[in-house]
Amino acid sequence: MKKKNKIIIGIVFAVLIILGVSIPSYNIYSKVKSFDGVIYPGISIQGIDVSGKNIDQAKKMVSDKYQAVVGDKKVNVQAQDKSYSIAYSKLNAQYDTDKVVKEAFNYGKNRSIYSKYKIIKNAAKKDFKLTFTYDKKPLDNFVGNIKKDVDREPVNATITKSGAGFSISDDSDGYKLKDQELKNKIIASIDGTLGADTNITADMETIKANKTKDKLQTINTLISSFSTEYGSRSSAGRVTNIKLATKAISGLVLMPGESFSFNGVVGERTAAKGYQAAPVDIGYSTGMGLGGGICQVSTTLHNAILQSGIKPTERLHHTIPSAYVPLGYDATVDYGNLDYKFKNTLNFPIYIEGISDNGVETFNIYANNSLTNRTYKIVNDVYETIQPKTTYINDPTLPAGTTRIDQNSLVGHKVKVFLQTYENGTMISQEMIANDAYNSVNQVIRRGTKK
Description:
Radius of gyration: 47 Å
Number of helices: 10
Number of strands: 27
Number of domains: 3
Oligomer: single chain
């Protein structure tokens, strides 16, 4: 009997132990199971308590407070006297709501049942932060459109010869948007903060005109002049060409340090521009070419520029001497091949006036009157003369005793050209600026041998 009672008591104790373990475990399981489809207690997103909410509920709560409101915000930009705005919605500005809600929902879900129960029971506070994102392309377009609207090129002052003086217009500043700085400002201002719009002032760079009225007003006197005569040796086409090229150059202003290119200013000599066929030097002979005669324009300008104290940076002489200037004074040009160039090395701007009238080509150079204490003179030294030879060719097609000149002779020369500088009438320097060689051309005569 006693043994039977002991067995019964043992069974009772076993049942009680099993029940003591099973009932709490069941309660824990049930509690954890009830949070399978919702977010655990103590969890918040950007300060919003989403405990016990499912994914859709949590998304709506976060979106209503943040996403819907932030989309209405604007970035306002003031650029000079103009205003521009772009809404956050245009930037596709948004929070990563879906991602963060999912993270909040999954928090603790991969742990053991007892760890989950501990999280639920203790409801420890944990706040998930939203990340704010936007599309940079609409921002780039926004800033680019502002730049197109506000950028302005400076306007140079202009100067026109008017009688004995000059008429000078006003210059105006240009403006350039500091677009990268503006973009950086906008990027720094774009955030998810709720509240008022963002207001930004765009920084502008002021661009001064290269030719200002103040600078051009320093042009007040004639500092050099050079003329050549073309009336007695020019056809109507040659006269037309000279006048067209001169007109293209006249009125040009070169600031200190600026360069001049004859071909760059005059451009290609074409029939569409009015240029005509006229005699032109081709090697050691003369032929017809479109724009013939304008080497007299480049030559005349070259000498006027030299007498202002400015030396060429590119200049070539003809293969045969030019009839309108002394040896070594010429400057030949051929579009696409030969150019005449110089750079304004003076401390003041220069104004170039070209005049073609009554068969005379003239270039006048104007600058500041402080330069007139110095004058310049061009001198040449023909240090060698090369006499041509005569070559005879027997020609059986010509009657005996007769001759025919195939090529005329031309005397050759070697010449040095110097630029002399005078200060208050006294020569202070002499510089060789050219050492040219004009080759001789032998005479060729055919002698008849036919009997």
